Amino acid sequence: MKKRNLIFLYIMEFCAGLARGSYLVSIGWTTLIISGKVATVGQVFIVAMITSIFAGPLIGILVDRYNRKTLTIFAHLGVATSLASLGLALALNSGLSVFWFFLTVIIVTSFRLLYQGSHDGLIHANVSREKLIHAVARFRGVHLLATAIGTVLTGAIIEMRSPTSGFIFSASTSIALITAVVFIKGVVTKNNATGFAGFIEDFSGGLALFRSNPMLRNLTILAGISLPVGQLSNAILSSFIRDDLGRGSTAFGFVDAAWPVGGMIAAAILSLGLRKLSAPNMEYILVLMVGVTTIVFSLMTTIWLLAIVHAALGFFVWMCRIMIDGRILQTCSAETVGRSKTYIDVMFSFSAMIMCFSPTLIKLPSTSGYFLFWGVLIFSSAGILWLTRLDRG
User: Fold this and answer.
1) Is the distance from CB of 346 to CB of 56 less than 8 angstroms?
2) How far apart are CA 133 and CA 122, in angstroms?
3) Domain map (residue ranges) of the chain
4) 3-state DSSP percent of the chain in helix, strand and coil, to 5
5) Tell me, what's the pLDDT at 183?
6) What is the pLDDT of residue 359?
7) Residue 391: its pLDDT value, please?
8) 124 — phi, psi (to 5°)?
9) Is residue 322 packed enough to be buried (19+ CB in 10 Å), middle (13-18) or exposed (0-12)?
10) CA gyration radius for the chain?
């Protein structure tokens, strides 16, 4: 049964990648068109981060208390409905208020958190502990392949047809995911506590787990330094392409698609289980490379070079992400996987929110300047952490 479940979990991961890629291109590009301001695009993703911070603990408890198959179906039904509604509203009113984009981002982010926790729980239930990191690498590789396809397709769909078509395509990928979920069998979540008192108990237990587990704290520091670069790219890449380089949505989709290509290479390498990748201090080296590559990315002036460096940036960020995700699943139990994962996401979201908010707080002459600023800060922070070895505290 587990082998059968894994097949459908991979199909789900592919559909989730399509959904994510199409969503990011649709919401990022359309928000820029409607508002005409890169700061507004950044604010949209800031709202997503704030939603993760406040909704994360609640959603983690839900994932640990209820059937994860049912939660997965509910989550992507909500995503599909939200995006289809926004697309249709945009078709009826091309001057739609940015408020509706903010509202959609809040709803979709909440549902995506619910899906991510539930899906990781399904992986945990169907893969042995010693194979979790390799399995996570393969799942993330499939996800990234689909994300690349989703970004390119949606960029072309928007340019050839309309932003509405991009949102409708994204909604359809969520429906395809739900179809695959139906075939998952035999996954039951143990519910240790019921009622409101049990809910409070689960919440307190999750916080205690985070405080008492050194590995979770260490992973949080590393995630907070390296992973939010992806959110920064989501927030301001469209402006970099349009305002700094004077190119359109097809170029945006092409460059954006390079990120998951780099991530797929990272996933392929980690799935081989090479021992050198788990050597002492390797995490610090990878985070340092995230900083260096972000700096180089800010200096690129042609689409092809930008795409190549964006792929390299995706490679190093996803090397960090996959190892962190795998180690979280290895550390936690079946009853705590939801809270362990979402509390890490909360801390990551807080750091990502600061990055996305930077175009609003700091006015720079070009969008590339934000990548340069954060690249230098990431490199410096990683170097200080490595030298002081704070993770041994």
Assistant:
1) yes
2) 15
3) 2-186+195-392
4) 85, 0, 15
5) 85
6) 81
7) 46
8) -60, -35
9) buried
10) 20
Counting DSSP H helices and E strands in the chain, the numbers are 14, 0
Tokens matching residue 35? 């508002």
Q: What angle, rounded to 10 degrees, do the helices at 98-126 and 38-65 form?
A: 40
At residue 61, the pLDDT reads 75
pLDDT at 32: 82
pLDDT of residue 193: 54
Q: How far apart are the first and last CA of the chain?
A: 43
CB 57 within 8 A of CB 203: yes
75 within 8 A of 116, measured Cβ to Cβ:
no
The two three-digit tokens of residue 230, written as one number:
């992806």
- Please state, in angstroms and rounded to a whole number, the distance separating the CA atoms of residues 33 and 366: 18
**pLDDT, tens digit, 9 for 90 and up, residues 215-231:** 777 777 778 888 889 87
Fold of 2-186+195-392: Growth Hormone; Chain: A; (1.20.1250)
Taking only the tens place, the pLDDT of each residue in 236-270 is: 888 888 888 888 878 888 888 888 788 888 888 87
5 vs 367: CA distance, rounded Å: 44
Predicted TM-score (pTM) of this structure: 0.74
CA distance 122 to 16: 14
Cα 241 from Cα 35, distance rounded (Å): 16
DSSP state of 37: -
Distance of CA 8 to the CA centre of its chain: 21
Q: Can you spell out the DSSP letters for 176-235?
A: HHHHHHTT--S--------HHHHHHHHHHHHHHHHHH-HHHHHHHHHHHHHTTHHHHHHH
The token duo for 28 is 């990022």
CA 21, CA 157: separation in Å to the nearest integer?
Answer: 13
* Tokens linked to 46: 């800031």
The label of the residue with tokens 């890169």 reads 38
Each residue of 17-50: b (16+ CB within 10 Å) or e? bbbbbbbbbbbbbbbbbbbeebbbbbbbbbbbbb
The amino acid at residue 126 is N
Enumerate residue ranges in the chain where pLDDT < 70: 1-2, 38, 129, 186-212, 214, 273-280, 333-343, 389-393
C-beta separation of 124 from 132 below 8 A: yes
Query: If you ran DSSP here, which 8-state letter would residue 301 be given?
Result: -
